[in-house]
Every structure is written in structure tokens, then in C-alpha cells.
Amino acid sequence: MSGEILQEFDPDFDDMYTRSVVGAQVWEIATYGNPPNSAKMSGYSSGQQENEDWLITPSFDLTVTSGDLNFSFDEAVNYEDSVSFYEKVMISTDYPGLGDPTLYTWTELIMPSRAAGMSWDFFPTGDLDITSYNIYSNVHIAFKYISTTYAAATWEVDNISIIEGTPPLVADFEADQTFVAPGTTVNFSDLTTGGATPYSYEWDFSYDGITFNVEETLSNPAWEFPTEGVFDIALRVTDFESTVVTEIKVAYITVAEVSEGVIINEVDADQDGTDAAEFVELYDGGVGNTSLDGLVIVLFNGSDDASYMSYDLDGYSTDVNGYFVIGSSLVPNVDYDLGPLTNIIQNGADAVALYTGDAVDFPNDTPVTTTYLIDAIVYDTNDSDDPGLLVLLNALEPQVNEGENGANITESNQRIPNGSGGARNTSTYAQSIPTPGAENQLVVEPDTPLNITISAVQNGVDADVTIGWDAVAGATSYTVYRTDDPNATFPDDWTAETGISGTSWSYTSHSPIRFYVVTANN
């Protein structure tokens, strides 16, 4: 073997091998890629489905190589942020080339970079040194896809390559924040690969596209942005052999004041079945039309006190009444539509937090942090308190139980009175009927109507019946149920007369025996 091995999936899998271990969905060829085609796997089919599927290269004899070996590929991942967990890259030296891969030994390859997820854009993973495998004559590399009934991403893979020799110099970098307030110091990290080390660095933190002004020469500098604006960042890298490459990230850093007064106002994490109507509601106190630029919602998992999802709010704003709702397409008044996804927000003990920043600042498995934190709610559905998440709240503020009333599948956690309590305070949260995009209100079941009276006047073979009762405080209407079968299942097999506004109701009965129930509603 020498040079480069490249799999572009044009027009088919060629000598790649696919194996489905679990589930009905399988790897297929997609008519898009970088460039088209690509290999595609999705576990979504009328909902999230459980799958384990492998895409495996042919055997490589790496003992015939003499230089460095670097493995890389391009990928796009959507509908998922936990890329390193559900989409794994594996290598084996004992797989025979066919059959169940789970019966053989595989080691995970940790690529230099992975796609962030939630995007159809293809992302280069960078070069991974696999030179240590040049003692093996039977090497397979596999792309292992996992989906569950609550997470089913689409994974697209293209341009799989093993390059023998020094890989080309590729300059790259990232910042710990990309949307900041004036006066914030941003930390930059060099991600340059390839070429001949050591490198030398030149940074321009306000590149104008014409003149490169060297403002820093460290590999991982920190730079303060004192004024508002949108900044292009340029990094020029020179390697030991005097090869020079430049990486420019256009509009990479945004410096602006972040809107104040926006808090988490309501969270509904648990419904019946697959939790298809979950949502988070933000509220600006009723100001209305407040920009949410520079804010990000982060979901934390109580099992490891680390993030499992984050959502950028750049470009969004509250509505005219001050509300903003992010959730599935089944949620009324949804502003940030996550599509027909289910089981997005975990049931607890977990947390929802609002930060200043971007989703890239919170990759999956980011530990709980109070840095740049604006507001949070730590919640559960009849679970024990999670001390690791409670640090998101002010001292002595409680974890909130959506199942407090024994009705977690029909009620949500919401601030009552609406918008009350203040940021990082949860003591005013109560459980009530969900009100996404509307004022939170505590719905209290009215008392049972008392002093029910029944009068009947014979009318031939029928009877004119009037039922009366005392008014119930807080009731907006009444319902009268009737049946002639005392063993009928209530209320399913009873006839209901709904929407009665007064304290009596009359009708003509055709049965000599009737049973009645009166309920108050609000």
C-alpha cells in the first residue's frame, strides 16, 4: 500500500461492507455529499427506532507501508448533539471481513475533531495518526451507528482516506466563546494539524480581508474585545519547512450587549407515552419583542451532571407578549420548532439552563457550570434531589417535582404567579395545566356541587326532569352525567351534558329510572 486510499461512495459502497446488528434501518447511499455521494444512516422511521449498524472498510495490509499513516473522513450529523456517543469510529485487527462485527475486538478511534451535530454541513475530522498499526496485515476501520427510541440522528460519511506520508499543513482554531459582551476576554485554541512541526503563529483578531495585522504570536492566545462589532479572525501558521497556510473565520466573534430580564418561565418534560409535546418557555417580563441573540439553552443530564443538548437562540426574539417557546412541532405557540421529535427533554432529575453564549460553547458532556449562567431550573418526576445540578440554583432553592400533584403527564412546572421568583430561584414554581406561550395560571379543581335536587313532572309516558345544585366558587361551568345503568363505567359510559352555565338543567327523560352525577369545571 502507498499513497492514498479514498472512498467517495460514487456511485455505490464499492468494497465497503455493511452489517445491521439491531433494527430495520440500514446504511444506504445518499445523493449528496462533499461532493456527492455519501454513505448515510438514520434510525428515524415514523419515530426514533433502536438500531446498531456498521459500515466497514475492506482489509488493509499496513505492514507494506514505510511512512506515517493518517486516517481522516468528512461527516455531517443532524438531529443529534451526542456525536461521539452515538456515532463511533472503530478499528480492528482480527475482523475477518464478513459477519457480525460485535464478535471481534474493536478499539475506538478518537478523531481530532467531530461534527457538532444539528447540521447538514459536512465537517472534516482532521488527520488521526494510525502509524502504530503498521505492524498488522489485516486492519479494518468501521463506522458504528447507534440509535435509540429517544435519539435517532442522521449520519452521513464521505471521503474516507488513509494517507501515507506527512499530511498537508491545515491551520485551524476555535474560541471558547463566540458571542460576548463588550470587554470580554476570549480564549483561542490552536487546532492546526499536518505539516512539519514546530509551528509559528500569527493572529489578526479584526481581519479586514486585505491587510494582515499581527496582534499576537502565541499558539493559544487570549484576546479582549472592548467594543461592539462582528469580527473576522485570521490565523497564519508557518511550519518547520516554511510552508505557510492561513485560516480565516468570517464573522466568527460577535460582540454585543445581551438582553437582560429573560428567564425560564415554564418547562414540560413529561407526557404520556413518547413525550411528544415537550417544551421550554422563556419570558421577558412582558416587555415583548426582546432579542434573544447571544443566548443559549442547555439541557443537563442528572445521570452524569453534564450537558446532552444545547440550542442557539441567535436570530430569535420573544413575541409581543414577552414569551418564547422552544419545543416539538406539536406544542402550541412554538417559536423554535424542533420538528416531530420525541423524548427530547429528559424527565429528571435533570436541568434546563439559560446562558450567555452559543451552542458551540456547550458541546455534549460539558460539565455543569455557573459561568455565564442567567437562569436555571432543576426538576424531576418523583426522583431524588441531585446535588450536582442544584449548584445551578441560588442557595437553598429547591429541585422542582413535575409530579408533585401525581399528574406529571398532564401538568408542567411553571412560575406562578407568572414570571415570579427571579433568576435561579425556583421556589415559586408550581404544577398546573401547560400554558406554552401564554400566562401561567394555577388551575385548582373546584369543589363538588352540593345540595343536588331532582324534580320530575309526568308528561305522558315520559317525565320532565329538572336537576338543581348549589353554586361552586371558582366554577366556570358544570357537567351533568346521566345513565339508566348503575353499573356503567363512569364517565366513559355515561351521557354528558357539558357547558352548563347556571345551577340547574332540565330535559325530558324517556326512562323510568335514571342516575345522575353533577361536576363543577374551571
Number of helices: 2
Runs with pLDDT <50, length 5+?
none
| Estimated radius of gyration | 30 Å
Give the domain tally: 4
Structural class: mainly beta
Helix content: under 10%
Q: Give the number of DSSP strands.
A: 36
What integer is the average pLDDT?
A: 90
Mind summarizing the main beta sheet? 7 strands, antiparallel
Cα(first) to Cα(last) distance is 77 Å
In what range is the share of β-strand residues? 35-45%
Overall shape: elongated
Describe the structure.
By secondary structure, the chain is an all-beta fold. The protein has four domains: 4-164, Jelly Rolls (Sandwich), CATH 2.60.120; 173-255, Immunoglobulin-like; 263-432, no CATH class; 453-521, Immunoglobulins (Immunoglobulin-like, Sandwich). Helix content is 2%, strand content 39%. It has two helices and 36 strands. Strands 1, 3, 4, 6, 9, 10 and 12 form a seven-stranded antiparallel β-sheet that branches. The protein has a six-stranded mixed β-sheet with strand order 25-24-21-20-29-30, with no helix packed on it. A five-stranded antiparallel β-sheet has the order 2-5-11-7-8. Strand 3 (28-30) and strand 4 form a beta hairpin.
